[in-house]
Amino acid sequence: MEKREELYRGKAKSVYKTDDADRLILLFRNDTSAFDGKRIEQLDRKGMVNNKFNAFIMQKLEAAGIPTQFDKLLADNEVLVKKLDMIPVECVVRNYAAGSLVKRLGVEEGMKLNPYTFELFLKDDAKGDPFINESHVVAFGWGTAEQLARMKELSLKVNDVLSKLFDDAGLLLVDFKLEFGVFSDGSIVLGDEFSPDGCRLWDKDTKKKMDKDRFRQGLGDVIEAYEEVARRLGVPL
Q: pTM for this one?
């Protein structure tokens, strides 16, 4: 597989063309950002940890019948993935109240949500990733009703699979965001990444935060927490 020119440079990853029209290479960088990219720092080992963490999770999801973009690991910080036409909508599943939900509604952090909630956000840093609904997605042409239904179905299945996986490792899956795209055959496929950058994970007993909130809130030991989560799951680093 030949790695060619850079197609896109995001806040934490770079996307490269390959000599296969249906495959791309993702490079996980050590860049760590918060507040829609307003704060960016370099954290040693972060690219490697997130790349291997993501590969582990995506393979677990594939085994559970959830189609993902993941193809194979290429290096410590590179992965081969399917090329998708990304839908600019973030799907967020919340099992416990945290983050923007607490700020918006004034509820207590850590409150168990029964049942879980499912939310949509427009992926647009310049606008602050605004909260949207299904009607907005269809009316503005960001996706179809059928695509949204499939995205919701897959998001809730991901929640079932990963809630148990993390629970078995002594962790609470508080919330997470997912992004989806359309593959060349028209199917909806889970894309981007699943790592502690895009979810909230708390120790089940102590409620210690083990995710990117350690960076957002200045708690320190960010990568050490990511590595501890990986160790508990059995991710080979």
A: 0.96
